[in-house]
Amino acid sequence: MTYHRPTCLDDAVALLQCAPVEVIAGGTDWYPARGDRPVTSDILDITRVDGLRGIRAAPDGWWIGAATTWTDILRAPLPPDFDALKAAACEVGSIQIQNAGTVAGNLCNASPAADGVPPLLVLEAEVELASATGQRRLPLAAFLTGVRQTALQPGEMMAGLWIRKPAPGRAAFVKLGARRYLVISIAMVAVWLRLDGSLIAEIRIAVGACSPTSVRLTALEAALTGCRVADCATRFHADHFVPLAPITDMRADAPYRADAVQALIARAITEAAL
Ligand SMILES: Cc1cc2nc3c(=O)[nH]c(=O)nc-3n(C[C@H](O)[C@H](O)[C@H](O)COP(=O)(O)OP(=O)(O)OC[C@H]3O[C@@H](n4cnc5c(N)ncnc54)[C@H](O)[C@@H]3O)c2cc1C
Predict the structure, then answer these.
(1) What is the model's pTM?
(2) Where are the domains of the chain?
(3) Which CATH superfamily is domain 170-273 in?
(4) Which of 118, 139, 183, 254 has its CB 3.0 to 4.6 Å from that of 177, i.e. a possible disulfide?
């Protein structure tokens, strides 16, 4: 087993051609998932690759490199559109986990309960995937294909995320767990919205831990557009929640999750609108 720590992206993607090699960033998902099994494959640690750590603002959006940690997100001067992502950053594990764990690792791990996904879905983030043959971008919703499944192809790694600048809005993230700290989500909700006075001019709502991958509730978004913030909860209808498929597991049962989601959405809208 060799532990590779390249400093340039070309070297990193070249190493990906030499199977088997596993990409790690913070290792906060990867190492616990090994349990007591020995590591037999080579490891490609991307944390020293030049240009992969940090957030860069461009005239039309923001770039978040694949080695950017949750703590980096918390410390970055970002507009209120990113408040849901920042709130999620505070909720991922403990401070030690936030210092090591990356946003990209959270996405590539593709857990249905990954706290980073709903805030990035409401920002309509795109992921950039790099390989020896070049780079491609795809929407985050298309990248996450199932429980622990992504659109990453052999020889590819995530280089970063791209977030196009929206019309200025505000965002909120609400997480429900069995306790207040260091907890995996029973359900979580991210909302991004733009107000026109007390009316919702535009809204995006994403729900996590209630389906194989986090999803946007586009029918609900349409129903709430033009609605007064105070009236939102009265517009909820069962049809709006059809994309969700909550399961019963050790954390909560399906009917509880389905109920809780509606309360979380109402709370997130109110918080985002404050
Ligand atoms: C105690 C504890 C508490 C936690 N609490 C939470 C929580 O509350 N909420 C939550 O969402 N998560 C939680 N996690 C999970 C984890 O910390 C986060 O998902 C974190 O963001 C993972 O980032 P990482 O850099 O450590 O990923 P890694 O462990 O390095 O990688 C995760 C997976 O992604 C792959 N990968 C990583 N980077 C890339 C890349 N650039 N390209 C391709 N593949 C890549 C790896 O091969 C691996 O399969 C917790 C973990 C622990 C140990």
Answers:
(1) 0.97
(2) 170-273
(3) CO dehydrogenase flavoprotein, C-terminal domain (3.30.390.50)
(4) 183
Other residues' Cβ atoms within 10 Å of the Cβ of residue 248: 11
Query: What is the distance between the terminal CA atoms of the chain, rounded to a whole angstrom?
Result: 52
With a 6 Å cutoff on the Cβ, whether 38 touches ligand 1 is no
Check if the beta carbon of residue 140 is closer than 8 Å to that of residue 120: yes
Burial of 111 (0-12, 13-18, 19+ CB in 10 A): buried
The structure tokens listed for 108 are: 């590539």
Q: In ligand 1, which atom is closest to the CA atom of 97?
A: 17
Which residue, 29, 120, 131, 32, is CA-closest to 81? 120
- Beta-bridged to residue 137, according to DSSP, are 128
Please name the amino acid found at residue 167.
A
CA distance 84 to 88: 6
Is residue 90 pLDDT above 90, yes or no? Answer: yes
- Tell me what percent of the chain is helix, strand and coil, each rounded to the nearest 5: 35, 30, 40
What is the distance between the alpha carbons of residues 31 and 18, in angstroms, rounded to a whole number? 21
E-state strands within the chain: 3-4, 21-24, 42-45, 55-58, 61-65, 126-131, 134-139, 144-146, 149-150, 157-164, 170-176, 187-196, 199-208, 215-216
| CA-25 nearest atom, ligand 1 | 30
Q: Residues near 222 by Cβ (< 8 Å), separated by ≥ 6?
A: none
pLDDT tens-place string over residues 106-147? 999 999 999 999 999 999 999 999 999 999 999 999 999 999
Integer Cα distance of 181 and 254 in angstroms: 22
